[in-house]
Amino acid sequence: xxxxxxxxxxxxxxxxFRAINNLSFSIGDAELRAVIGPNGAGKTTFMDIVTGxxxxxxxxxxxxxxxxxxxxxxxxxxxxxxxxxKFQRPTVFExxxxxxxxxMALKADRSPFAVLGWRPSRASATxxxxxxxxxxxxxxxPRKAGELSHGQKQWLEIGMLLAQEPRxxxxxxxxxxxxxxxxxxxxxxxxxxxxxxxxxxxxxxMDFVRRLNCKVTVLHQGSVLAEGSLDHVTRNPDxxxxxxxx
Amino acid sequence: xxxKLTRKPFILRNPSILVVLAVLSVFTLAVTLLSQAYxxxxxxxxxxxxxxxxxxxxxxxxxxxxxxGYLGILSLGQMAFFALGGYLIGQWLMYARTEAIVAASxxxxxxxxxxxxxxxxxxxxxxxxxxSADLPLVWAFAHSLPIQxxxxxxxxxxxxxxxxxxAFRSRVNGVYxxxxxxxxxxxxxxxxxxxxxxxxxxxxxxxxxxxxxLDEVDQATLSVWFLWASALxxxxxxVLAAWVVSGKFGSVVRAIRDDETRVRFLGYPVEGFxxxxxxxxxxxxxxxxxxYYPQAGIINPAELMPxxxxxxxxxxxxxxxxxxxxxxVGAVVVSLLSSWFTxxxxxxxxxxxxxVNWVDWWQVALGLSFVLVTLFAPKGIAGIVDxxxxxxxxxxxxxxLGPDQGALQEQExxx
Lengths: 246, 415
Fold this sequence. Notes:
heterodimer; A: about 250 residues; alpha/beta; Rossmann fold; 2 domains; four-stranded antiparallel beta sheet; 10 helices; B: about 425 residues; mainly alpha; 16 helices; disordered N terminus
């Protein structure tokens, strides 16, 4: 299986603290992967590096076939390459309507003049309506995103990610602040999405990871401690020692 | 299903356009009919000029609102573009008029003057005041109205593009960016204060109210013409600005204001959007300046000291950020009030033991109202319109109550 994303021996330090230490990681075209690890293991820094927010001190991040390096691209270019990111706290544009939020995220030419000339079409309106009903916000299109509940904002952000049609989805703690029913819905959605694209879920919650039923990568002190099925990694004595045993 | 999303025509989605254009037309017509040149003469020419200049300030305020209210950059250097527009049109006005005067005075000579002699005479007239008799390089195109008009657009546009590219690329934001814009306008002002750069130092350019080739047209008529031109420019710029901030472009621009990082992760080149808006605003501001200074008659480097740009920010804040008509209302109301209070005609308030003289105290009152508006009415005068129209944003303070409580947040739940 060819890798969509290959992270090769990256390291990064902040003020002498090694947040990521010679980390290597790869994920295929249509794969679901959970990344777990204790606080400070480098999960968020890892996502920052892949999305271009942080530059590593050494190592390389290769993308697609033929592989090209993401390190020279800025955040916006990486997003246009097809990397979508869902933040831990829902970040939607609260002052704008649900429809505007989704329209902004629709896959389209992102250059300023193309956007200036962009006009909504029946196709774009249908797509926005479809996305909204997919994330359960069909009745809320004209409402301001700021009026939505926390869970609805999470869903709106997921809808915006879908609208971007990314090839790789980075999801940071999707279950945070969701009710049990919403968690189940989220699990189902992530599993379904991973059939057609790569999905990396960073999660704290073991029950949620178990429900995803996928390969797990355990991070500890900035590098990969163990990788494999959840049962496999939970039997690993190192993992038990640093994470689960506590 | 898609009915909710089908769009009304552009004008109907932005009813403020019709209102602004209607008010502007009625205002212009009324002033014309009351002017000395075209009507009863109730409004003296000097007042027509004040009103025309006020429209130009409103135009600059609309551009400021694009940059500050929509894009979120508190630019304290907008008046640099305004003054640049004034200087560039002033160069032609002064050159062409001086040329006509010099040509007339040399016409009596037995031998007609050569072009070189003519230019020398013009240079002597214009630059004698700073002890020079050569025409500086920056006046190379001053003889040509079309070229100077093109420069009115090009020079401020390119300055904004270069400045913006450097600043936005290094991701300078917030108050640091404001300081940088202020530094830019201060540097430009200090440079213009020098005598040897070709812009006559602190004398500036003068006699701009006399339009070359229109010697037989009196100031009363000219003032009305400039009022029309200013009103036309304001109307067109308003429609253009409203079009730019509507639709997806406006959506992205407001999103950049609210959360720039998130917009980057959506794949939008944030710097490109900032550059487009900043440059467009600079060009609109320069046009406003090019219309303002022929009505003012004189321009000097003091016009682009940072305080002028801060006033512009105050007008927009009081009028209402993020509402284009708010910018116009703020600029018109505050600048007219300012000239009334500082003009010495406002009656002083006699308190026991102290007399409040408005010439001295107006600045204090304005500063105080700026602070009050910022604290208590962040939407300014336009906020009143919102309130009348029932557009109220919910008070969303405090933590949210958790997934089970729906949209309510602490403050709302308590209210």
